[in-house]
Amino acid sequence: MKKQVGLILLMGGVFCPVFAQDFTVTDIAVSPLIAGPTEVQVRSQLFDISCQGGGYAAETLLRELELRFEVYNRLFRFNAAQLKAPLKVRAFTDKTAYDNYVSLKLASTREGAVYLHYNDAAKRELIIHLNSPEADRVLPHQAFIQYLRAFIPYPPTWMREGFAIYFNTLKFNKETRELLYEENLAWLDTVKRMASERREPSFQSVLLADVNNQTPEYFHPMSWSIVSFLLNVGGGGDYFRSLTETFLLLDSTASAADNDKIALSRLTNWTTLEKMHDDYTTYISSRQTFAELIVAGQEAYGVNDFTVAETNFMEALWQKPNHYAPYYYLGLLSYATQNYDMAEQYYRSALQFLPANHGPDDEALIQYALGVNAASAGKTDEAVQYLNSAA
Question: Residue 208: is it exposed, middle or buried by C-beta count within 10 angstroms (0-12/13-18/19+)?
Answer without folding.
Answer: middle
